[in-house]
Design goal:
- This protein has 370 residues and is an alpha/beta fold.
- The chain has twelve helices and 15 strands.
- The strands form three sheets. It has a six-stranded antiparallel beta sheet with strand order 2-1-4-5-6-7.
């Protein structure tokens, strides 16, 4: 999967941009606040319909303009697809081959991306919702069934929470209706638990190896944490456990007016030599763990979707010393992976990587290929 062309109109500080990218490494070079990250953000929005930075926000439209457009040409083997996002202050439209797509679930997965930014430190340090959001985004890109099930789960969760409040305030409300909602919620929850567990297991296949190749240290793994203890993640084990948990904690949930147990309370953490990196790791180790996690995902995307994702690395070199920079470039400099990288300079980067890359100079919202 490659992005061959990007066209921007009135996006952030870009009034008009039309560039072609190469199939492998593309490096955008420029001082801070010139628009490098904006280019990566545009590609993320093209893929996910929302930004990794702030989501849908009219401020992404250039000042004094009323609309912005992001268009891209995607190549999967010999199949060419044109994607488009059009944003005004009131709405956002999605297009595939110039056809309006009304449902986001029908749009997502046409372009798969893996993004690393300096802000990703929140994946380690932030709340569980940050980590759940990461899992949901990645799984939604490679499984339309996951995206559909996750959306259905959230609707049922909202309905169940609302009905718990009704039951608390109304003694004659029908408790059997709650049981019906709960059974449906459990069905969706089982699928989400299984897919998340499967995904984290797949990450762990290469995670420690990649972490060691970049950092020189081994002994790291991702640990999946649920707020319900399962002996196994097979269908029947999860179903029975959830049925028991909801029945046992009915009065507790009634008093809280919300569903306390389920995948909406999931978490995961990075374990280095039996220590949680959130509390016992240096900031450098935390960043390398996140980066290794992201690189580990490349093979998973390829295995499940059939295509390697586009790798977006924002200001990555400032996070790494010289040795680690070139170790990373060696890992991602493979034929079937397209990478798009931003940096303030090309110092200390092995010349063999630069010689085979497209280099773009970014200055004041203008992009020129060197």
């Amino acid at each position: 999967m490659k992005v061959t062309k990007i066209n921007l109109i009135n996006f952030r500080n870009y009034s008009k941009v039309n560039i072609s990218l190469c199939n492998n490494m593309n490096i955008f070079v420029g001082d801070n606040a010139q628009g490098k990250t904006n280019m990566l953000e545009a590609i993320v929005i093209l893929a996910l319909t929302k930004s990794h930075r702030i989501g849908f926000n009219p401020n992404i439209i250039m000042f004094e303009k009323n609309k912005c457009k992001i268009n891209g040409t995607i190549k999967k083997n010999k199949i060419i697809t044109k994607l488009g996002i059009e944003i005004t202050e009131k709405e956002k439209k999605h297009f595939i081959n110039n056809n309006l797509i009304k449902r986001v679930s029908d749009y997502i997965s046409n372009l798969n991306v893996i993004v690393f930014t300096p802000d990703d430190l929140e994946i380690v340090k932030g709340s569980p919702s940050v980590r759940r959001n990461l899992l949901n985004i990645q799984l939604s890109q490679i499984s339309s069934e996951y995206l559909k099930t996750y959306n259905e789960y959230n609707k049922l969760l909202k309905t169940r929470n609302e009905y718990l409040k009704i039951l608390f305030n109304n003694n004659i409300a029908d408790i059997n209706y709650l049981d019906i909602i709960t059974d449906k919620l459990i069905e969706k929850a089982i699928f989400i638990y299984q897919k998340r567990k499967e995904y984290i297991d797949l990450v762990n296949v290469n995670f420690n190896k990649i972490f060691k190749e970049i950092s020189g240290t081994s002994g790291i793994a991702v640990k999946y944490v649920t707020n319900v203890d399962f002996l196994d993640f097979d269908y029947e084990t999860i179903r029975k456990k959830l049925k028991h948990i909801f029945k046992k904690n009915y009065n507790k949930e009634l008093n809280y007016g919300m569903t306390i147990y389920g995948p909406h309370r999931d978490d995961f953490y990075f374990d280095l030599l039996n220590n949680d990196l959130k509390y016992f790791g240096s900031q450098g180790q935390q960043k390398l763990a996140i980066l290794s996690f992201k690189i580990s995902e490349i093979s998973i995307f390829k295995e499940i979707s059939g295509y390697s994702p586009v790798l977006l690395l924002d200001d990555i070199f400032s996070e790494l010393d010289i040795k680690k920079r070139n170790r990373l470039l060696k890992l991602i400099n493979i034929d079937d992976v397209q990478s798009i990288i931003t940096t303030t300079d090309l110092k200390s980067i092995n010349k063999k990587y630069i010689d085979n890359a497209y280099i773009f100079c970014v200055k004041n919202g203008q992009i020129e290929r060197k």
